[in-house]
Amino acid sequence: MARLIEELRKLPGIGSKNAQRLAFHILRSNGEDAEALADAIRNLKAKLQLCSNCNNITDVDPCVYCASPTRNQRLVCVVEEPTNIATIEKTRSYNGVFHVLHGTLSPLHGVGPEHLRTGNLLARVSRGDVDEVILATSPTVEGEATAGYLADMLRPARVRVTRIATGVPAGSDIEYADEVTMSRALEGRREM
Amino acid sequence: MARLIEELRKLPGIGSKNAQRLAFHILRSNGEDAEALADAIRNLKAKLQLCSNCNNITDVDPCVYCASPTRNQRLVCVVEEPTNIATIEKTRSYNGVFHVLHGTLSPLHGVGPEHLRTGNLLARVSRGDVDEVILATSPTVEGEATAGYLADMLRPARVRVTRIATGVPAGSDIEYADEVTMSRALEGRREM
């Protein structure tokens, strides 16, 4: 029991009180539920892997996006983390595929280019499999540095490289826009 | 005293307690201060007017922006309210002039095109005084409708009409971007 509580406490957002409650719940639940939970946890690590093409977390290789015949395989959206794919899928307006970096450049935290998963992206582009690479890293300092690094890396391959727009968020009043965002919104203005 | 308290209470954010405190403060202050405050209030309404060229609130006509020889008078940024000029000036990256609409289209609130101050903008553009009109209304429903209306209004004049970028705000993680903003950020992507 103490061992389970200790293990549960390692999960984010679970304190010792909460871990105790969870452990007692598992104790009281029937054997099948406990077995199913244990199985699910074991399988997560055993079966999930990274897609060899795009680094997305998947249980089949290539992942559903890379294997999809209805998606535009020549349009690649580069994101920082696997969770960002959900953000882009929610828009229901993107029909290309993805590439997951698993991080951003952050010299202060010792994260250099060698820590980003870029090898298979460069390979895809160099093979001529890609028409456009959309850099959808966040418009943070790290995200911008990463986008700049990738743009430089892809330049010799002569592929079209684009960056998502920075600007005033939809539904928001420009009165609440900070200087940098407003400046980028003006700079990024488009013909109507 | 009661009359002053009542008048002060009409100001936004001033409740009855606060109005009383302000009134007593004025009562205790010396005559000069009270006179100066009364004068400042009277002058505000008496001297301030709208710039005949751009509708900005000003005490000289034309306003400082329209009269400036160092600003690009052929680049006009259209905003909803005079306060929006401050938002754009804070970026320190804009060197054109402005046009203030004093509102946005809002059919639900009975605000139609006839309520927006667009006459002098159309006149400026029609005279050939303008190279580009930047529509910097907010990316809200009303702001977008207003931008669409202005773009249609200006089309016959064959002036360049642009819209500020909607997208992920600077410094923010794309994980927190809502669907519409993310969708617009992808749509508005630019060549790097």
TrEMBL record, chains A, B:
Taxonomically, which superkingdom? Bacteria
**Which processes are annotated in GO (biological process)?**
DNA recombination; DNA repair
UniProt keyword DNA damage present? yes
Q: Which residues form the Toprim domain?
A: 74-169
**Zn finger limits (C4-type):** 51-66
Presence of keyword DNA repair: yes
A GO term for molecular function: zinc ion binding
Enumerate the UniProt keywords alphabetically. Answer: DNA damage, DNA recombination, DNA repair, Metal-binding, Zinc, Zinc-finger
> What InterPro entries would the database entry show?
DNA_Rcmb_RecR (IPR000093), Rcmb_RecR (IPR023627), Rcmb_RecR_Znf (IPR015967), TOPRIM_dom (IPR006171), TOPRIM_RecR (IPR034137)
Q: Which PROSITE patterns match?
A: TOPRIM
Q: What does this protein do, in the record's words?
A: May play a role in DNA repair. It seems to be involved in an RecBC-independent recombinational process of DNA repair. It may act with RecF and RecO.
Describe the family membership recorded for this protein in Swiss-Prot or TrEMBL. Belongs to the RecR family.
Can you say what this protein is called?
Answer: Recombination protein RecR
